[in-house]
Design a protein that fits this description.
4-stranded antiparallel beta sheet; globular; alpha+beta; Jelly Rolls; 19 strands; 3 domains
């Protein structure tokens, strides 16, 4: 072998070694025992992909490894900060429908995976069946919303619609749902009843809708009152994702109404006074004026024992109703204390007579 040939061989060997070293250093070492297909994907499907899906309201899809791996560091930051899921609450043992945060195991799996090299393992199974159009099944009545347009130079828009109800739809309700026409655009909605009828403490807020939140129907024996002169007031917030930030977009959503019969749900005043009669605690939600960082509700029994009913942090744009499953029965003489004052709305019905 000539000197020139030997030198060329050495140069090639050095180049290959350098390239191999670069490839090894350019990729994180795999230290996670969890893989995307076996461990991470089931959590994402159960907890995240109602929003984080192609065409959905979240800024990225998390349905495949190809989608998810580039967002590993962002996922870590959101989980460590406690931002996701955006409506988790602590209920001291009482189950909250669709409001539980990630479990300790789920957090451990996701954080270990994103910091341990994001291994994928095998190709995932076939795509799951598409979610039904209405999570509670076919509504008893459907009310279409007028079309809303968001111009190309608008990032977000809030519109309020006042919708008349025909005689067949002015009935007590067990639930109200919203089906977006353009999923990536509809960010939140508030649905309430407008009426000249004296409301008193009767609840007029029908629903607080956010993407990925399955509505919770009222239990048997309770209903949301809809007077004979009622109109629906629907306040919708539209917000573009980064993929459509310069696009002109439009939406035409629909409301689904589910009829019921029963005692009208009312708002309970949190005045610190003992309950004159027993109540069944159905749900709570933050008041429209709430800007605090933490909301709590405590119940003190007639013998002086206090327990925490719920504790959560309101997040702007993610207001929702927290429903207890099963509802919590509170006997006469119980004192309810909300903190801070005026930050919480409490929904109840009287305890059934025995």
């Amino acid at each position: 072998m000539t000197k020139n040939a030997a030198a060329a061989c050495v140069l090639v060997a050095a180049t290959v070694a350098a390239a191999t070293t670069w490839r090894v250093e350019a990729h994180k070492p795999i230290t996670s025992p969890y893989t995307f297909t076996e461990d991470v994907l089931p959590i994402l499907r159960d907890r995240c992909t109602a929003c984080h899906v192609a065409g959905g309201p979240a800024p990225m899809a998390l349905t495949t490894a190809e989608d998810t791996v580039p967002w590993g560091e962002s996922i870590r930051l959101e989980l460590v900060a406690g931002h996701m899921p955006p409506w988790s609450a602590v209920s001291n043992g009482s189950r909250l429908r669709h409001a539980e945060g990630l479990t300790a195991r789920e957090l451990n799996v996701l954080l270990t995976w994103v910091t341990g090299g994001t291994p994928i393992n095998a190709p995932p199974p076939g795509a799951p069946a598409p979610a039904p159009a209405w999570s509670l099944g076919a509504p008893d009545a459907i009310v279409p919303l007028p079309e809303a347009a968001v111009a190309a130079d608008q990032a977000e828009l809030t519109k309020e619609f006042v919708l008349p109800l025909d005689a067949t739809s002015r009935r007590p309700l067990r639930a109200v749902d919203l089906k977006p026409g353009t999923r990536s655009l509809v960010r939140s909605a508030q649905i309430s009843v407008k009426t000249a009828t004296q409301a008193g403490d009767v609840e007029r807020l029908l629903a607080l809708w956010v993407p990925g939140d399955t509505p919770v129907p009222l239990p048997d024996g309770a209903s949301l009152d809809v007077p004979n002169d009622a109109e629906l007031v629907v306040r919708v917030r539209y917000k573009k994702t980064w993929e459509h930030e310069r696009d002109a977009m439009s939406d035409r959503s629909e409301l689904g109404l589910y009829f019921a019969s029963g005692t009208p749900v009312r708002r309970l005043a949190l005045d610190g006074q003992p309950l004159r009669g027993g109540v069944r605690l159905l749900s709570v939600y933050p008041s429209a004026s709430s800007t605090v960082t933490r909301v709590t509700l405590d119940a003190t029994s007639a013998d002086g024992a206090t327990r925490r009913i719920i504790e959560f942090t309101p997040r702007p744009g993610w207001d929702r109703r927290y429903a207890f499953d099963p509802p919590i029965d509170l006997p006469a003489g119980t004192r309810l204390q909300g903190s801070p004052p005026g930050a919480l709305v409490v929904n109840v019905v009287p305890l059934p007579s025995r």
